[in-house]
Amino acid sequence: MMLEQAKKPEQGSQRGRGALINPTGRFEKIELSRYQEEMTPEWLEALENTDRKTQYFKDHTQSIVTFNDSPDVGFDASINPYRGCEHGCIYCYARPTHEYLGLSAGLDFESKIFVKTDAAGLLRKKLASTSWEPIPIAMSGVTDPYQPAERLFKITRQCLEVLLEFRNPVGMITKNHLITRDIDLLCQLAELNLVRVLISVTSLNETITNVMEPRTARPAMRLRAIGELSQAGIPVGVMMGPIVPGLTDHEIDKILQSAAEAGARFATHTILRLPYGVKEIFPNWLEAHFPDRKNKVLNRLKDMRNGELNDNRFGHRMGGGGPFGDLIRLRFKKAKERYGLNQPQAPLSLDWFKKKHPEQQLKLF
Q1: What is the bridge-based pairing of β-strands 65-67 and 137-139?
Q2: What is the pLDDT of residues 18-75, one digit of tens each?
Q3: Could you tell me if 205 and 78 are in contact, meaning their C-beta atoms sit under 8 angstroms apart?
Q4: Residue 299 contacts residue 47 (beta carbons within 8 Å)
Q5: Which residues does 334 contact at the CB level (< 8 Å), separation at least 6?
Q6: Alpha-carbon distance 42 to 32, whole Å?
Q7: Pick from 11, 44, 318, 354: most CB atoms within 10 A?
Q8: Tens-place pLDDT, residues 268-301
Q9: CA pair distance 234, 232, nearest whole angstrom
């Protein structure tokens, strides 16, 4: 199936950004808008097309491990080294979290990045506490731990070093080839069955990924990351998340085949969901880049979500019902079987955990 060339938006686009708008957060009482009646067309165009530079802010959080009891999520604890994500994935369900900071789920989310500079120290303190019982920790549960900021700050690597010190198991998920930088640490974790990696591949079509996930690694580089991790002996699988019905669902078979050939051992998926402000941002993006597919995508989502664009109920929000939802699950299941990606994975080991950090043990003498 051939995909039509994405339409280049005439106005409102920001180079290297996913969102085209920056709507006011749902918690804000005041909305700031430009008074446009006296602005010339040239002035308006200049304002709309000004490139937005990424800004980094120190995050003063006092805790780093987050717990959840959601049946939709395959982990109970997670670490998010960054708030906001420069990858700019237009569909990202984490976008509304920026509204808690008084910012927008649109362009603010992908251009105002909060860095948890104390993450490694907070993690060490948590794992050394008498209350900590070892469980697998996911990196990340919300934003990508290997987004471009990681090249500068290396917060994810520092956290991996702490997890290795304590021998606490970890699951990684990313869209970025940058994860291969940390193969040295991941190999040591893998030797003790303490790590599992998922590389997210949503499409193999660069026409789509260039505008849907503008600052992620390109599809070929993600497959390359799967290959490099696999060759290093690190258990790695592919995550097709989210599947966008009417836009990327036809790629299920090809993505799983390519991932298996690259070295993936297992596969999983989610279906697009549009919580809170994403319900405004994503249709706006469709109208700009794929206007011919907008109604098809949105109507299929509604068909899977009882007439709504989103279903927040546990057990429903990551998937979808109805004929289209059932068809996606069946196609994914059959493709997993076809390419040998349906083999059960042994649980990560909890047997190697060190209750106290070595430096703390020495202080006892």
Answers
A1: unpaired
A2: 777 676 656 544 444 444 444 455 544 444 445 678 999 999 999 999 987 766 666 6
A3: no
A4: no
A5: none
A6: 21
A7: 318
A8: 999 999 998 999 999 999 999 999 999 999 999 9
A9: 6
| pLDDT, tens only, 127-138 | 999 999 999 999
Helix axes 252-262, 322-338, angle to 10 degrees: 30
Q: What is the mean pLDDT of residues 152-173?
A: 97
**Interatomic CA distance for residues 10 and 364, integer angstroms:** 67
Identify which of 174, 219, 222 has the alpha carbon closest to the alpha carbon of residue 198.
174
Residue 151: which of 182, 128, 130 has the closest Cα? 182
DSSP letter at 233 equals T
* Separation between Cα atoms, residue 53 and residue 14, nearest integer Å: 10
One-letter amino acid identity for 259? A
Question: Residue 206 phi/psi, 5° resolution?
Answer: -70, -20
Query: Phi, psi at residue 304, to the nearest 5°?
Result: -90, -10
pLDDT attached to residue 39: 43
How far, in Å, CA of 263 to CA of 268, rounded? Answer: 15
Question: What is the residue whose two structure tokens read 């390419």?
Answer: 339
Q: Which amino acid is at 122?
A: L
Residue matched to tokens 């709504």? 308
The single residue listed with the structure tokens 């995508």 is: 297
Location of structure tokens 């934003």? 143
Q: Give the C-alpha distances (Å, rounded to integers) separating 259 from 92, 97, 195, 226, 266.
A: 22, 31, 19, 7, 9
Cα 153 from Cα 159, distance rounded (Å): 12
The C-alpha atoms of residue 312 and residue 117 are separated, in whole angstroms, by: 32
